[in-house]
Design goal:
By secondary structure, this protein is α/β, with parallel strands linked by helices. It is built from 10 helices and 12 strands. The strands form 3 sheets. It has an 8-stranded mixed sheet with strand order 1-10-9-2-3-7-6-8, with helices on both faces. The termini are far apart. Bound molecules: S-adenosylmethionine.
Length: 332
């Protein structure tokens, strides 16, 4: 067991079940992570379903041990694809394990995406899920820190009665709900590094701001390109990260340091832009890992839209499809 102070604000290149032995009991405020989904990505060896579930139980038992009594865990998962395309949603299979370990369920968040793979023999996947569990009933939740704007924030009640003249909705904003629409980090996203499946920073920001206070400790057992560490640090939280692939640990540390490597390269466009903004250096001197052909330029940036925009676009798309479905077209 290590001294907690020595573990803080670092990323460890280890298997989490080995590394976790260093973390003292009940010292972590929040765990936010996305484990390997056992689908044969470049960083994982596909294992039989049952052995993956047993491994997950070991991971989650360790998470429970290190969480404080007031702590939360957000576990973001997709689906396992079995033989002949059989579709097994991880959240459904993992839920009983969480409950059996004594975690208390708070939300099952659906993360919808406009884009994804195009299936031929079933409906294309357009969502993944996030399971939020707490260790006890005395958990932290700061709704006011993550409210989203109301559509009519200034609308007042005009009917005579007790509420006459009062705002019809909370002017501080609305609870974001359990359907989230953050854009996933694929091509054209300025946060994209060489890692194949990163969290978007604004997704992690919502989780960290809603469930932790300044200086709290956030653990990501599968930190990949370091997103959880970046967001924790940017919001004055402390973090501990673990990642088994050395190349990803290097990317994560490079993102955290925020300066060019010896060849003038950055791990992503966002880090490059931040550096140029802070130093005033000429952007055309630098490169970033995912750029295809062209160099970064001082031209106006691609607009970064808030999640409300992505949600709106997704709803518009769903309405469009409902209004233009083939059976309705045939009826005309
Ligand atoms: C879904 S990705 C997480 C990506 C991360 N959320 C980000 O923003 O980049 C899962 C990560 O877990 C790592 N991993 C797989 N098995 C591991 C293990 N036993 N211990 C620690 N990390 C592991 C993989 O290399 C991969 O980077």
């Amino acid at each position: 067991m290590s001294n907690l102070k020595d573990l803080i604000n670092k990323i460890y290149n280890e298997d989490f079940l080995e590394f976790s032995k260093n973390i003292p009991d009940e010292c972590i405020d929040l765990i936010v992570t996305s484990p390997p989904y056992n689908i044969g990505k470049e960083y994982e060896k596909k294992q039989p379903l049952l052995s993956y579930l047993n491994w997950s139980r070991e991971i989650l038992a360790e998470c429970k041990r290190v969480l404080k009594d007031t702590g939360s865990i957000f576990y973001q998962v997709g689906t396992y694809v079995g033989k002949k395309g059989a579709h097994f949603p991880w959240d459904i299979m993992l839920f009983p394990i969480f409950v059996d370990l004594g975690f208390i369920p708070r939300n099952r968040i659906v993360w919808i995406r406009q884009h994804g793979t195009h299936a031929k023999y079933k409906f294309s996947n357009r969502h993944e899920t996030v399971l939020w569990f707490t260790k006890s009933n005395s958990y932290k939740f700061y709704l006011d820190d993550i409210r989203v704007p109301q559509i009519f924030p200034k609308k007042k009640n005009y009917r005579k009665g007790r509420d006459y003249g009062k705002f019809t909705s909370n002017p501080r904003g609305k609870n974001p709900g359990d359907v989230w629409a953050f854009r996933n980090v694929k091509h054209n996203h300025e946060e994209q590094t060489e890692h194949p499946c990163q969290f978007p920073e604004d997704f992690v920001t919502r989780i960290i701001l809603s469930t932790t206070e300044t200086n709290d400790i956030v653990l990501d057992p599968f930190i990949g390109s370091g997103t959880t560490g970046i967001v924790a640090r940017n919001h004055n939280r402390r973090f501990i990260g673990c990642e088994i692939v050395k190349q990803y640990v290097n990317i994560a540390n490079h993102r955290l340091i925020g300066i060019p490597d010896g060849n003038g390269n950055f791990p992503n466009l966002k880090a490059l832009r931040q550096y140029v903004d802070e130093t005033g250096e000429d952007i055309t001197r630098f490169t970033f890992s995912r750029q295809i052909g062209k160099k970064a330029t001082p031209l106006p940036r691609a607009k970064i839209y808030p999640q409300s925009h992505h949600l709106q676009k997704t709803i518009e798309r769903i309405m469009f499809e409902a209004e233009n479905s083939c059976y309705k077209t045939e009826q005309k």
